[in-house]
Design a protein that fits this description.
By secondary structure, this protein is mainly alpha-helical. The chain has 10 helices and no strands. InterPro entries: Homeodomain-like_sf (IPR009057), HTH-type_TetR-like_transc_reg (IPR050109), HTH_TetR (IPR001647), MT1864/Rv1816-like_C (IPR025996), Tet_transcr_reg_TetR-rel_C_sf (IPR036271).
Length: 238
């Protein structure tokens, strides 16, 4: 049974994370310091060090919390999609990822911009990495389900560039731990780089030189990815 002391500690860590996120949204990542958080919470900086020993530790914990937030958002959005509707699941997950990113640009930048530096305590590193893995698995699980129900065309292993083939094998065997053809892993990464790359360009303002509304370009990307996976493109609800 969790002790009262543990509950109080968990509540304080939660408040620290929420305060850090407010500062991140308002002022940017450079402003998220232990001193600034302590000041806003009415604590002393030394007292805060009992919970996070460094700036890197704090940011890694916040990264984990943000990954949990976007993962929860994706699952909540897909909850109303009929279980067998793979096209609907893919469209919903992709669009919800973009929506979350556009609604939370500074949080997105912390997750998908420059990597957070500083090792921190192993438990915070593990927490952030596990939350990131759960986020990534949301999309990988869709690929697994689709491949099981309706396999899409993929190249044979010996048709993949040798340099890429070995990297895909290491990723599949050492990270994912799944029994899938390397062509499926390649297709997964191709789709992810297109999705995440498209969203990043929009969030960071790198499409504004040509587009003042990037939504149609995003939908065009979804039509092409859908064709690659044998899915039926479903336009967004107006």
């Amino acid at each position: 049974m969790e002790s009262r002391r543990d509950r109080l500690r968990a509540a304080t860590v939660k408040e620290i994370s929420e305060t850090a996120r407010r500062i991140l949204v308002k002022e940017g990542p450079e402003a998220v310091t232990l001193r600034a958080i302590a000041r806003e919470m009415g604590m002393t900086a030394p007292a805060l060090y009992r919970y996070f020993g460094s700036h890197g530790e704090l940011l890694r914990h916040l990264v984990g919390e943000l990954f949990n937030d976007v993962t929860g958002d994706l699952h909540a959005a897909m909850k109303d999609v009929p279980p067998g509707d793979m096209s609907g699941k893919f469209m919903t997950a992709a669009r919800q990822f973009r929506s979350w990113a556009l609604a939370h640009p500074r949080e997105y930048a912390l997750l998908f911009g420059a990597p957070v530096r500083g090792a921190g305590h192993q438990e915070d590193v593990d927490f952030a990495e596990e939350c990131a893995r759960q986020f990534g698995w949301t999309f990988m699980a869709l690929f697994l389900e689709l491949w099981k129900k309706s396999p899409f065309p993929v190249p044979a292993d010996d048709e993949i560039d040798p340099g890429l083939r070995e990297q895909l094998r290491r990723y599949r065997d050492g990270v994912l731990g799944v029994d899938l053809p390397l062509g499926v892993i390649q297709q997964f990464l191709k789709c992810w780089t297109r999705l995440q790359g498209n969203v990043s360009l929009e969030v960071f303002g790198h499409l504004e030189f040509a587009l003042d509304d990037a939504a149609p370009m995003f939908e065009l990307m979804l039509t092409e990815v859908s064709a690659d996976l044998g899915l039926t493109y479903v336009p967004p609800k107006s």
